[in-house]
Amino acid sequence: MSLGKLANCSRCDALFVQAVRDICPKCYQQVEQEYELCARFLRKRENRGSNIYQVSEATGVSVKQITKFIKEGRISIAGNPHLGYPCERCGSLIHTGNLCDTCIDSLKHDITQDLEVMRRLDEEKNPGNSTAAYRGKRNTDE
């Protein structure tokens, strides 16, 4: 049976025995208090239309921590239609994943272009090995 290992807290860098969480017991208590503040704020009917920045301003909890609560499923966006978290690339509010649809499409486009450039460079280096060069040859036996 393992009792845990020594680790540094990811929030305060304090040394603690890590069993389950990556934060020390003191920080865990702070996170739980922050969660209660957010949950209490969002339970009020007049606050259900708040976005993540308004929740952060009203509770003093960081946007990063509220995002973590949402991603963990501790704060539901179902009852809070305007509550989302920032896209990791452009900052627009999203409800699932890490990137908005626009950034996903942009990354797909960039990857497609990069693959095309790599394919063309490969064809230039090895013209005899590519299928495009093979298809371009005519049968001289006809």
TrEMBL record:
Alphabetized UniProt keyword annotations: Cell projection, Cilium, Flagellum
Organism superkingdom: Bacteria
Region (Disordered): 121-142
Protein name: Flagellar protein
